[in-house]
Design brief:
Layout (H helix, E strand, L loop, with lengths): L5 E7 L6 H14 L3 E6 L2 H4 L8 H7 L5 H6 L5 H14 L2 E6 L2 H7 L7 E3 L7 H8 L5 E4 L5 H16 L7 H9 L1 H10 E6 L13 H10 L3 E5 L5 H8 L4 E5 L17 H18 L8 H4 L2 H4 L2 E4 L14 E4 L10 H4 L17
Parallel strand pairs: 1-2, 1-8, 2-3, 4-5, 5-6, 6-7, 7-8
Antiparallel strand pairs: 9-10
Helix pairs in contact: 1-5, 1-13, 7-8, 8-9, 8-10, 12-13
Length: about 350
């Protein structure tokens, strides 16, 4: 992706099926300073059956329990709308992205200029989607909500196979072999970012477990990020401070609107504030070294101490804990030089507070 935190403003389906609102959301994301604005692309008939019920949060946020299919149908954007959104994003200087929820939609999205392909949490176990997405030659952002480490490993094995071998895998043994291949591991490191995620809207703080990012990074050796569904911006900022390379956050034009994701989304001013805070955190993180910052160097002599005479010291008098102390400024010997001096005769007389010489 990039050397800095890549911030995705997740419009998702918060346009409620309105192209005009979706275009406004592109503008909001650009004005907030997001790197990308992301939507969702799907054919509801390919995504859900008539028997697919809504999640509890969807029932709560939409006020109806009429099943997923009717809800999704109302949230679809057609192909022309996607082109209009991509064009608006280009005009506003923000990258266009969309998550595909079926294979036809994935193929369509390859016709648009996107910086990465996003695999949603719900499709982490859909091998055919992983295989096709991995062979598109673009970076992959893989969301891991609801997943175990083993499920993440299984998904990465499919991606590893897709990146290094032809055809389709014969089964788990061939996938495991592909995953163990050093060339495949190198390809994964080059192409894949894992997103920690808690799939609940809004996600309660006790379910977030940001330390899972550390576990995933250590287990798989891949860059990690965070897809945030909590209320507010605190956790997303904390994730950036913890080393997330990608932050994804839902936003809306109006949080009070009915719809599955509005309630867990930021409003425009909040989105801008979150991104500004992430950029501040990013600057403050710096690099993994410990040395005086250039801005500190001038304060060393003022804030640190030197060895000085605690009382008058006669020439030839042995240095001792009684006649030596440490005081500001640091214009003489470091206090760390005290112990080798103890018992040595003073080379000359010293007045109180005079800096001692070696």
């Amino acid at each position: 992706m990039t050397d800095r935190v890549f911030v995705i403003a997740e419009a998702g389906v918060n346009h409620d099926g309105s192209l005009a609102d979706a275009l406004r959301m592109v503008d909001v994301a650009a004005e907030a300073g997001a790197d990308a604005v992301k939507f969702q692309t799907f054919d509801s008939a390919q995504l859900a059956t008539r028997r697919a019920g809504k999640a509890a949060y969807q029932v709560r946020n939409t006020g109806a329990d009429d099943g997923q299919l009717s809800m999704l149908k109302a949230l679809e954007l057609d192909r022309d709308a996607h082109h209009a959104l991509a064009d608006r994003a280009a005009e506003r200087g923000v990258r266009f992205m969309s998550t595909a929820f079926d294979l036809d939609s994935l193929a369509f999205l390859t016709t648009l200029d996107m910086p990465a392909i996003k695999i949603p949490s719900g499709d982490l176990t859909w091998g055919a989607m992983l295989l096709q997405a991995a062979r598109l030659g673009r970076p992959l952002i893989v969301s891991t909500g609801m997943a175990t480490l083993d499920e993440i490993g299984d998904a990465l094995a499919v991606i590893a196979f897709a990146l290094t071998r032809e055809g389709t895998p014969s089964g788990p043994a061939e996938l495991a072999g592909a995953f163990a291949d050093p060339a495949a591991q190198a390809a994964l490191r080059e192409r894949v970012t894992l997103l920690h995620c808690t799939t609940e809207y809004p996600a309660p703080l006790e379910a977030v477990n940001l330390r899972a990012m550390d576990l995933m990074a250590g287990t798989f050796g891949l860059p990690v990020g965070y897809s945030d569904h909590t209320l507010g911006m605190t956790v997303a900022i904390a994730a950036a401070a913890r080393g997330a390379r990608v932050i994804e956050k839902h936003f809306t034009l109006d949080r009070s609107r009915p719809g599955p994701d509005h309630a867990a989304s930021l409003e425009p001013e909040e989105l801008a504030a979150m991104i500004a805070a992430i950029r501040q955190v990013e600057t403050a993180l710096g690099e993994a070294r410990k040395a005086p910052a250039p801005q500190e160097v001038g304060n060393r002599a003022i804030a640190r101490r030197s060895l000085v005479a605690a009382r008058p010291i006669a020439a030839g008098e042995p240095f001792s804990l009684d006649n030596l102390t440490a005081k500001r400024p640091a214009d003489g010997l470091s206090p760390m030089a005290l112990w080798p001096l103890l018992g040595r005769p003073s080379p000359r007389a010293y007045a109180p507070d005079e800096a001692v010489e070696a």
